[in-house]
Amino acid sequence: MRPLIAGNWKMNGLTEPSVALARAIRHGLGDASVEVLLCPPATQLASVTGIVEGSGIGTGGQDCHAKEQGAHTGDISAVMLRDAGASYVILGHSERRQDHGETSEMVAAKVRAAVKAGLIPIVCVGETESERASGAQEAIVGQQIAASLPEDFDGVVAYEPIWAIGTGKVPTSADITRMHDFIRKELIRDLPEGANLRILYGGSVKPSNAAEILSLPEVGGALVGGASLIAEDFLAIIRAV
Ligand SMILES: O=C[C@H](O)COP(=O)(O)O
């Protein structure tokens, strides 16, 4: 499987800068040997999808509701994301788990909705700084995987240590490898043969560290936050694969 480099724009992107960023990435990409995904805010999803159409670059949502439709003011369903052109959706990001009280059970319901709508879920897991300091990282990530993913999960998992997100701190290559191995072993026993499992790393991925992180055999790509908002940086990360 090709590595996946996904840009999570988070809550950034008015119309003009979003259009400019998507165009710059499209035009700067060339023949990428990796799969590239842009996850803009929902308000920009349809227009960014239109800009990258035909380029091989995909688009994704940053969250979805577990239901298809109904009286859920302010929410967006997986079907709506699909309708706006998305092929992926990020689920269970720590910013949603922490800021919106999302539990792994809620994430699991969203994963089911996403798959039903034809989207590939990118499910985020990761430990806090104190959980790592106490050596509990595998227990925490193991619990998140067990409760967030269905037994036959065949999508993407993103390992994002919470303490590495937007901080400039990055785990050592040995720690990333150990955790990715652990996640693969947790998942593999329930996966059908030939499953499309990819495990991404996320957390302060930059042009300066991308080559080292992405050269680790266990790492199937990256979920990039801040650096995905600067076209040259995001393109440099893609080229580092
Ligand atoms: O979804 C992306 C991650 O939260 C990483 O964000 P960051 O690259 O700004 O650390």
TrEMBL record:
One of its GO terms (biological process) is glycerol catabolic process. GO terms for molecular function: triose-phosphate isomerase activity. It comes from the Bacteria. Its main location: cytoplasm. It is an enzyme of class 5 (isomerase). It is found in: Cytoplasm. Substrate binds at N8, W9, K10, G166, S204, G225, G226. Transmembrane segments: none annotated. InterPro entries: Aldolase_TIM, TIM_sf, TrioseP_Isoase_bac/euk, Triosephosphate_isomerase, Triosephosphate_isomerase_AS. NCBIfam families: tim. Belongs to the triosephosphate isomerase family. Homodimer. Involved in the gluconeogenesis. Catalyzes stereospecifically the conversion of dihydroxyacetone phosphate (DHAP) to D-glyceraldehyde-3-phosphate (G3P). This is Triosephosphate isomerase. The lineage of its organism: Bacteria, Pseudomonadati, Pseudomonadota, Alphaproteobacteria, Acetobacterales.
